[in-house]
Write a structure and sequence with these properties.
The complex is a heterotrimer of chains A (698), B (215) and C (379). Chain B has helices at 4-30, 116-126, 134-139, 191-206; strands at 40-45, 48-49, 60-63, 71-72, 82-86, 102-110, 142-145, 151-156, 169-178, 181-190, 209-212. Chain B is α+β, with helices and mostly antiparallel strands and 215 residues long. Chain C is globular, with a radius of gyration of 28 Å. Classes of the chains: A mainly alpha (698), B alpha+beta (215), C alpha+beta (379).
């Protein structure tokens, strides 16, 4: 590649030459090409008046899928040695544009693996290492059980025997791919809201497998290819390739590209000479045609890692660059670096790999300096490695355990003191990590803390726990502390479920992008959720304690009164913030589309909370309900919060429905049922104990 | 603890409620009065385009013959002159419904409708094929001649793989440009199915009648 | 300081009955249920239908059981509020927060009423280079009859509520009358596949028949249809058919003059105009997610003209009208931008009233919260 311009001209010549004879040739004579792509002409020439039977239709599909879906064959004669997970770290810092955001490849690798398998590592191997293998040595990843298929019916439909871990490899899915594609087309034609679980699972699985396949082909130009076999030793000699014994019969597109001038010379000779082709000439013509076809595949790769020099803001996958001669010339150095990384990876040369990756990184940063300035890669990679949200969840689980121990040892002196201290410390630490997670997101995304359904969970957890710990500092009864652990565990567990859907840091549609109203409205609403949720959590403990001792001693009464005050206070807090949130939502709506109130489901949900709080406060004021009633009302308040927060997303209408998770409806109804059952049990126990006790007291 | 006073209060509330009812009724009724309808009268300036007036009256009138098995789409978007479903020809007389029937639309627009390239690029975009293919597609287009003699071209995307594995749709379409109008016949649907119905589509185009109104 | 008359009125049994807690709590609970079920109903039937059902005075559950509608409940609660503030709420500083809160609520309800009665929502769609002089309704229709003099249309229009079967629409000054035969709120229209046949109706688009359809989930998607008898002196009566989706008006000659008829979304003329110069949409790189929509327009009023940029959350406000960037379309003819246009005399009331409620609550709760902090700190 001494003169890129020369090779570009040659490439164009190759394309022209390759494309012309192919169109005229009957499909049968193009046997080697059919490995790469089906001969398109095969379909339109024989245009099927008599394509009646189903068998024939099936035959029609088969070769096409074979061409599109086949992974690189195992036996390329040039096996890859691969690198250790530690050695591919430099690859993780490479920038990629995905879902509208420039992120480190490490983030993409994690999110893809999470989306496919539900875990962010594969049997202890970090996601990035798996990702690197898929890209650089795809032939080795066929047996990795990467794809989670929860629904046994889907697995069965694909002819896979359902496994306990519900994770399957590409090779297991491969025989059923044709069927999967057909199923997914059918599912795709159904309106999203009307799809059933199986159809959703089919779509999800097909999407995942398609992404995987697209990924395996994203560096195809640098991989030895089955369609580029050079078996004639003379050709290898002419092109200066290593002998068959050393290198195996296959070469890569890029290796040939580097030898383009030599090929051009031979092709020029053909044009001048005419007559019969020599075996070498024949092979060169065949190779150039195969190269053209290969340059046109793999465009849909999600690996968009090269900034488009012609159009700032758009990024390209290597295959798109390879397919476009103009770009190929301008991004020659970057494509070359990627090819070198591939060779280094396959040769097991860690030092060369790292050097090339750093070079690529530096040159991308130069090409897209303005865009790269807005990223915070070190922070994002740190966040990926530490995973503060997960740490926080674990800490809350432990604190929940010690919190219960504290209630067991309530009057147990040292044990009580120590469990209290440990719970307090753990909750504090957990809150710290949670806050760190939220702050990191804010810094990375450069936007307010709550902009998507996922983000509401950590935020509500953080706010309610901060308020709970504040209340605990004042009351020192352990009730608010235990509520904090309860809420933290519950909300963060849900948040982790949502995180399994892929990258939670996505871009926003235009209407959600007005930072001021969005941040204030959503933050106030979520603070309202937090307050009502906390009040509900405290009310649970209050009700259990109340039921335990329906006729309390004076100390118990004082302590209960303290708890009641917390329930009431947090309710007022919830009313205030829900109201402001609702009003700010109105202002936002009025500013955006001229309607203060549009009966949007999310707004209605917030209004429900406001009205419910108003009912409770008025009923309490008029003496219609007492402390226990307020507590029961607060529990129901939490139910209303869950409806406003989650139920609304299940309705799938309105401007606010930015999140939808299948199966959530069942969980929501389960939760509501559980709360009602809880209230009934508490009421029954209170009644029974009340009737048992009187003799002792009197 | 129901006391006599409480009861009296309830009774008072009921009384007030009863008194409020006729009031509300009157309020409701006041909305609908049964007079002779009175028209609104106003002046308005019609929408004016800087690109000159858009010819509202079409200069042509289309008529056509449906190939075997094709059915009319009952309602369609108003932009379309007509829409049809073209099922697998092998199902034509079996009475079976083809879930992958191809959507064929007939659209006529004034002028050159933005030009050939722009329209091909738009169609390519509809099936997720990069715009860079437009040149290739137009070069490979085949000529077509309708029953009334006007000539056009047929573009066929079915031999282009979109590069996106999830996209299985493709387009075969005819574009006929005349004096002051453009007629589009677009078949969009499953790639396999399109290949099967293409002969029928060509037949449809060949029998299409474009009657030009002479001014 | 509570005046005698208030004390007396507050103790009056009627006042007590009106302000009975049971009424308030029941009212609030009903509101809760109405909103909850209204939201569910809206998911299946669309907002317009939900508003129609839940905003009445009575709802017939399962066709037989009456349940108060939102309007009734809100009226009852408003009356309670007014009575409570006039006679009962003590005039003391401690209750200042409550005064402000409830005053704000009352004002909010009044504002809602004004909006309900007087706000008009419409839209304006312009292609690049086009100038708009009127806005158009979303789901309200009219039969418009007009003559064109230079670039001005003199329009006579009957609103869709008037199109009851049998209604007679006088087209004066033209010597003609229309008698409504059928009007469908939503309809499908069919052209005849037989070309060259005689059409049963006078129609601009060759429509030969029409069928009623169930109203759409979203009312603006309805396409109404009208069949009416056209009576012109000295000529036999003929039936005309007008369909909402027709792009061309029906041209008739009445009294020697060319008159155009169309069933169209109501037009609201403006006394100023807007020209769309450019519409720009930007996407987040590599996705279909929009980052922003912007319309660059010229606002003309009389002889003056100024450029304005309208984009998300930054509407153009002029002469009581507010123009919002609502949507866009890109087709063969280029880029179109659609503005939602609202006029609402009560627009500012929610702002003021919610500020009052918020301030009042804050005042009230802060007083209580300070008390709580003081009490717990003493321990």
């Amino acid at each position: 590649m001494k003169n890129p311009l020369h090779s570009l001209l040659l490439f164009l010549a190759l394309c022209g030459l390759a494309a012309a004879p192919l169109r005229a040739q009957p499909p049968a004579s193009g046997a080697p090409e059919s490995m790469v792509s089906p001969d398109p002409e095969a379909h339109s020439e024989d245009d099927g008046h008599d394509h009646g039977s189903d068998e024939e239709a099936a035959e029609d599909i088969q070769p096409e899928l074979g061409g599109e879906f086949t992974l690189l064959p195992e036996d390329l004669g040039r096996p890859s040695k691969g690198l250790n997970p530690r050695d591919v770290r430099a690859f993780g810092a490479v920038a990629v544009l995905h879902d509208g955001r420039i992120k480190p490849l490490e983030t993409l690798a994690r999110h893809l693996l999470l989306q496919w398998s539900g875990h962010d590592a594969y049997q202890g191997t970090p996601a990035l290492a798996i990702f690197a293998q898929i890209v650089f040595a795809p032939e080795k990843t066929g047996d990795l059980k990467l794809f989670r298929i929860d629904n046994p019916e889907v697995a069965e439909a694909l002819g896979i025997t359902a496994e306990k871990k519900r994770r399957y490899s590409y090779r297991q899915i491969e025989p059923g791919l044709t069927k999967l594609q057909a199923l997914s087309q059918r599912a795709d034609s159904i309106e999203e809201a009307k799809r059933n679980l199986v159809e959703k699972e089919v779509l999800r699985t097909f999407g995942n497998v398609a992404t995987y396949l697209n990924l395996t082909r994203s560096l195809q130009f640098a991989l030895p290819s089955a369609s580029l076999v050079i078996a004639v030793p003379e050709t290898r000699n002419v092109l200066g390739l290593p002998g068959l014994a050393e290198g195996g019969p296959t070469v890569s597109f890029w290796e040939l590209m580097e030898r383009a001038p030599m090929m051009a010379q031979i092709l020029d000779g053909i044009h001048e000479g005419g007559g019969e082709y020599s075996p070498v000439e024949n092979e060169i013509v065949r190779l150039s045609r195969a190269m053209y076809l290969q340059s046109q595949t793999g465009m849909a790769s999600p690996l968009r890692i090269l900034p488009n020099p012609d159009q700032p803001g758009t990024w390209l996958s290597p295959s798109e660059v390879v397919a476009t001669p103009g770009l190929m010339q301008r991004l020659n150095a970057e494509i070359g670096a990627l090819a070198a990384m591939t060779s280094a990876y396959r040769a097991g040369d860690a030092a060369a790999f790292e050097a090339r990756a750093s070079a690529l990184n530096a040159s991308v940063r130069r090409l897209a300096a303005a865009e790269m300035e807005k990223t915070r890669f070190p922070l994002e990679i740190l966040k990926n490695r530490v995973n503060p949200l997960f740490v926080s969840t674990v800490l809350f689980w432990i604190s929940l355990f010690t919190g219960f121990l504290f209630f067991l040892f309530r009057h147990g002196g040292a044990a009580s003191r120590w469990t209290y201290r440990i719970t307090w410390t753990l909750s504090g630490l957990a809150l710290f990590f949670l806050t760190a997670a939220i702050v990191a997101r804010v810094l990375i995304m450069r936007r307010p803390p709550v902009t998507s359904l996922f983000e509401t969970f950590p935020f509500v957890a953080a706010v309610s726990i901060a308020v709970a710990l504040f209340l605990e500092r004042r009351s020192r009864q352990g009730v608010a502390l235990l509520s904090a652990s309860l809420l933290g565990t519950l909300l963060l567990s849900i948040a982790n479920r949502y995180a399994a859907d892929g990258d939670t840091m996505q871009m926003l549609v235009a209407v959600l992008n007005s930072n001021f109203w969005l941040s204030t409205h959503v933050i106030c609403i979520t603070v309202g959720y937090a307050a009502c949720a906390l009040s509900g959590a405290i009310a649970h403990i209050r009700l259990v304690r109340g039921a335990w001792s329906p006729v309390p001693t004076p100390e118990q009464r004082a302590s209960l009164r303290e708890v009641d005050r917390m329930v009431y206070g947090t309710l007022c807090f919830g009313l205030l913030f829900s109201f402001i949130g609702t009003v700010l939502g109105g202002i936002w709506a009025d500013q955006s589309w001229g309607r203060f109130w549009g009966w949007d489901p999310k707004e209605n949900g917030a209004l429900l909370i406001v009205i419910w709080c108003a009912i409770l406060l008025h009923a309490r004021h008029w003496g219609v309900i007492r402390e226990t009633g307020v507590a029961a009302g607060a529990v129901l308040g939490a139910v209303i919060v869950s409806l406003a927060w989650q139920g609304v997303n299940l309705l799938n209408v309105g401007l606010h429905s930015y999140g939808f998770t299948s199966g959530a409806a069942l969980k929501l109804f389960g939760y509501i049922g559980a709360e009602i059952l809880f209230l009934l049990v508490v009421w029954l126990v209170t009644e029974i104990r009340k009737h048992k006790r009187p003799p002792e007291i009197s | 603890m129901p006391s006599p006073r409480f009861l009296s209060k309830t009774r008072a509330a009921l009384l007030i409620g009863a008194a409020a009812c006729p009031l509300l009724l009157a309020l409701l009724l006041s909305g609908c009065q049964g007079d002779e309808p009175q028209p609104r009268r106003y002046r308005e300036i019609a929408l004016k385009s800087k690109n000159g007036p858009v010819q509202a009256d079409a200069p042509i009138r289309l008529s056509w013959t449906l190939p075997d098995g094709w059915v009319d789409q009952p309602e369609g978007d108003p932009l379309r002159q007509a829409g049809f479903w073209a099922p697998d020809p092998s199902l034509a007389h079996t009475g079976e419904r083809d879930p992958l029937a191809v959507d064929v639309s007939l659209v006529q627009l004034a002028g050159d409708a933005g030009g050939l390239d722009a329209n091909v690029v738009r169609w390519l975009g509809q099936v997720k094929i990069p715009a860079s293919y437009a040149e290739q597609v137009i070069a490979a287009a085949s000529p077509v001649r309708v029953a009334t003699g006007q000539r056009g071209i047929v573009v066929d995307f079915t031999d282009i793989l979109s590069g996106d594995l999830t996209e299985s749709k493709s387009i075969v379409g005819a574009i006929i440009q005349g004096e002051g109008y453009t007629v589009f016949v677009k078949a969009m649907g499953d790639r396999e199915r399109l290949v099967k119905i293409k002969p029928q589509l060509l037949e449809f185009c060949a029998k299409l009648n474009i009657a030009e109104k002479t001014p | 300081m509570n005046p005698k008359w208030r004390q007396k009125a507050a103790r009056h049994p009627v006042t007590k009955a009106v302000l009975h807690p049971a009424i308030t709590l029941a009212g609030l609970l009903m509101l809760l249920l109405l909103i909850f079920f209204g939201t569910l109903y809206q998911a299946d039937h669309g907002l317009y239908e939900a508003q129609r059902v839940f905003f009445g005075y009575l709802i017939w559950v399962a066709g037989v059981v009456p349940f108060p509608g939102s309007s009734l409940v809100l009226w009852v609660l408003s009356i309670q509020l007014a009575v409570m503030m006039t006679f009962v709420l003590p005039l003391v500083w401690k209750k200042a927060g409550l005064w402000v809160v409830h005053g704000g609520l009352l004002l909010l309800l009044v504002g809602g009423f004004i909006t309900q009665m007087m706000a008009v929502e419409s839209q304006m769609t312009l292609a690049e280079g086009e100038t708009g002089h009127y806005t158009m309704a979303y789901d309200k229709w009219e039969v418009a009859v007009w003559r064109q003099i230079a670039d001005t249309n003199e329009v006579l229009a009957y609103v869709d509520e008037d199109l009851q079967p049998g209604a007679v629409l006088d087209l004066a000054p033209w010597p003609a009358r229309l008698t409504v035969v059928k009007y469908h709120e939503n309809a499908a229209a069919f052209t005849s596949t037989v070309t060259g046949g005689v059409l049963p109706y006078l129609n601009a688009s060759g429509i030969a028949s029409m069928e009623p359809r169930k109203p759409e989930k979203e009312a603006p998607q309805n396409a109404p249809g009208l069949i009416a008898k056209l009576s012109v002196p000295n000529t036999p009566d003929r039936e005309i058919l007008l369909y909402g989706l027709e792009s061309r008006p029906l041209a008739l000659t009445l009294g020697g003059e060319r008159v155009l008829l169309q069933l169209r979304r109501r037009h609201y003329p403006l006394d100023f105009s807007l020209t769309l110069k450019d519409f720009i949409r930007t996407l987040h790189p590599g996705t279909d997610v929009a980052r922003s929509y912007e319309s660059y327009v010229d606002l003309h009023d009389g002889l003056s003209s100024r450029p304005v940029k309208v984009w998300m959350n930054n509407p153009l406000r002029y002469k009581g009208y507010t123009f919002f960037q609502a949507s866009f379309a890109i087709d063969q003819e280029g880029e179109h931008s659609t503005f939602a246009v609202v006029t609402n005399p009560g627009r500012l009331i929610p702002y003021i009233s919610s500020l009052m409620v918020f301030g009042g609550m804050l005042l009230h709760f802060i007083l209580h919260f300070l008390g709580y902090v003081r009490r717990t700190a003493r321990k």
